[in-house]
Amino acid sequence: MAHESSASAPETPAPGALTGKTALVTGAARRVGAAIARGLHGAGASVLLHYRSSGDDAARLAAELNQTRPGSAATAECDLLRVAELPALVAEAARAFGGLDILVNNASTFYPTPVGDIGEIDWEDLIGTNLKAPLFLAQAAAPLLHARQGLIINLADIHGTRPLRRYPVYSLAKAGVIMLTKCLARELGPHVRVNAVAPGPVMWPEDGLDEALQARIISGTALKRAGSAADVARACVFFATEAPYVTGQVLAVDGGRSIGW
């Protein structure tokens, strides 16, 4: 319930609203993850850029960010499916920058698994990367985040509530991320906030997508255009800088596609 008070209107956060804070972004070397890292860094945060196999891309991004602000970015390699290694990844953020304020669970695998062709390896990979790793990484990061009144941002998907045809395992993994966000918000409050961003058509798959299908997807949005990785990054920066009383929520960044199916 909204409550009016005589207090002055809140000020817009300064460009350095995250100065002195540290963010760990998984899958940060490229695409949406890189945009999120740039957005948080642009707001003043130091960032640990996680990668699994894109070491060159991660190194280039770290060099770019450090050129802007020396000593503000570092990289860390980790296979997120190896749960035993996740505490070390979190510890690296603390070692590099003195603590951890923001965990962004962005890393993801995405490919079709039509019913009849689903293999156990598909299940282990898609559930592992999209749902299992965020849970165990959040668990490993919780003490550090608790100490700094921190924030977890999970990357969900609008298909976590409306299944994507031929992608049942991915869709149910992202549905799990949505529930994970709500569960963690209850479990880790009041000291840690947990929210999610659910992108829609903001970046097409790297292996391409039929132009007619792209046009059909865009026509299903209320804004009649595709979004961008920067739109997702701005939502993450919003949660980190302007939403201190928001937790357990999922913000769709989809141009209105989820209301116009």
What does the model show?
It is a single chain. With 261 residues, the protein is of the alpha/beta class. Helices cover 42% and strands 13% of the residues. It contains 7 helices and 7 strands; from the N terminus they run E-H-E-H-E-H-E-H-E-H-E-H-H-E. It has helices at 31-42, 55-68, 86-97, 120-147, 168-188, 211-219, 229-241; strands at residues 22-25, 46-51, 73-77, 102-105, 151-155, 193-199, 250-253. A 7-stranded parallel sheet has the order 3-2-1-4-5-6-7, with helices on both faces. Strand 4, helix 4 and strand 5 form a beta-alpha-beta unit. It is globular. Mean pLDDT is 93; it is low at 2-12.
Descriptive keywords:
261 residues; alpha/beta; seven-stranded parallel sheet; 7 helices; 42% helix; globular; disordered N terminus
Query: For the largest beta sheet, what order do the strands appear in spatially?
Result: 3-2-1-4-5-6-7
Q: Characterize the largest beta sheet: strand count, sense, and whether it forms a barrel.
A: 7 strands, parallel
Q: What structural category arises from helix and sheet content?
A: alpha/beta
Strand segment count: 7
Task: Identify low-pLDDT runs.
Answer: 2-12
Classify the beta-strand content into a percent band: 5-15%
Count of DSSP H/I helices = 7
Q: Determine Rg (CA atoms, Å).
A: 18 Å
Order of helices and strands: EHEHEHEHEHEHHE
Overall pLDDT score? 93
Overall 3D geometry? globular
Kindly state the percentage of residues in helix: 40-55%
How far is the first residue's CA from the last residue's CA?
Answer: 30 Å
